[in-house]
Give the backbone structure.
Amino acid sequence: MNLINVKEDTIATQLLRQIVQNNEFHNKLSFYLQNQISIKSLLLQLLEKIPEEFILGISIFDGFGKIIESTGSILGQYSTKITFGQKNQFKVQYSISRKENKQLNILLIGFSKCGKSSIIHRLNYNAFLGTKLHNIGISTSQFYFLGKKLKITEIGGNMDLISYYLNEKVENNFDAIFFVLDYGFIYKESLYERIFAILKKIEDENKLRMSFILTKSDIKNTTKNFERISKKLEEISFLQKNLIVYSSLTNNNFNSIIEYIKKL
């Protein structure tokens, strides 16, 4: 079995592996072919089990390489060939690809050590990051989540970089902005207020959706921070604000982030 495993779409790879390892299906297929029974209904049964967001291509060859039956494309991103039947006289090639969905472009901003990388890791791998990453600058992550292709641009570090990117790069490039705030809000309130003002201007001009994620809810000051931030958001009058209290460590309230992304 030759299986092409593309890192960014493990779901497609796992699905293809399940198909290839389905011995019951291949035993039936071998019986049908050897007894010259039409395999169209058998292939249709397999196709009906494939999730809607995927396209499965199947081609079956005899021992001379001639196609006996073919359905769908075999030019997908993930493919495999197997040989079966008496004296290996049949070959089947599978190919699976994901239907093209609109890519969601999300801008993730926040000061250093606020938990941006932990949120990305949780979305991509559903696991706690476990190590400290101090991303200062701009980084991009792309992966599939709940059938959607996400492209997350992470901006971290200092006030100047965040302000520059928001003022110069946002227009028509993103579907939503996630602003990550940590328990240090109490000590950096004036900096956050400057970001809030820029975000409000962006919302007015571009109608972008805003989500504010208060991280590290397992640490002190969460209640006090939540009250302060809620008050600030009310003062600024965001039209599409969404405030989530979240902990990457305990995964508390992760479903709120999931539901928000579903609506984008």
